[in-house]
Specification:
This protein is an alpha/beta fold. The chain has a single domain, classed as Rossmann fold (3-Layer(aba) Sandwich). It is about 30% helix and about 20% strand. The chain has five helices and seven strands. Strand 2 and strand 3 form a beta hairpin. Helix 1 packs across helix 5 and helix 2 crosses helix 3. It catalyses: an N-acyl-L-alpha-aminoacyl-tRNA + H2O = an N-acyl-L-amino acid + a tRNA + H(+). Its EC number is 3.1.1.29.
């Protein structure tokens, strides 16, 4: 079935350099990996003021078989839903063509899982997206960050940078996650 509306891929995270390398920004980091893969040259995000996001509009074949919008929200994780809904409305993208990438405590570091619909697993970014879209029937790409050690609060854990060992492995993990998404979106 042909469609004129693009696939929308949104990486969740928090704005600013203070959060750039934290576990909570794993979704935004995957967007950077995808931007680097857009051929013939890396794609760049530009500010999309109407939606409070940064976007890169990619023609069909530049990364995926269909026109694709790569995006990062510019607000905080817990209010991601408004910008995601605004993007979907602006581009005419249905929930079934939306892919939200986020960090997941219940997956070990290095694992990822892609699913259509389902619950939010306590993730405030997903709660916000589901509430704003009025449906849970969108794709979620969970990037495993693992559980916090000891008694560390999950809210503190997600806002901390990756460990030295994790940071060394992160480029491979992000590449694997991007590979999984591209394979999922490009059925043969």
């Amino acid at each position: 079935m042909a469609t004129d509306s693009p696939i929308l891929v949104v990486g969740l995270g928090n704005p600013g350099t203070i959060y750039a390398q934290t576990r909570h920004n794993a979704g935004a980091m995957v967007i950077d990996e995808l931007l680097d893969r857009a051929t013939p040259m890396p794609a760049q995000l530009s500010v999309h003021k109407k939606t409070n996001t940064e976007v890169a509009e990619l023609a069909a074949g530049r990364l995926m078989p269909r026109r694709t919008i790569l995006a990062r929200t510019r607000g905080f994780m817990n209010v991601s839903g408004g910008p995601v809904k605004a993007l979907a409305s602006y581009y005419g993208t249905k929930p079934a063509d939306i892919h939200v990438i986020y960090d997941e405590l219940d997956l070990d570091f290095g694992q990822f899982k892609l699913r259509l619909g389902g619950g939010d697993h306590g993730h405030n970014g997903l709660k916000s997206v589901t509430k704003s879209l009025g449906t849970s029937d969108y794709h979620r790409l969970a990037v495993g960050i693992g559980r916090p050690p000891g008694r560390q609060a999950p809210a503190d854990y997600v806002l901390k940078p990756f460990s030295k060992q994790e940071f060394a492995e992160l480029p491979i993990v992000l590449a694997d996650v991007a590979d999984g998404l591209l394979e999922y979106c490009s059925p043969e």
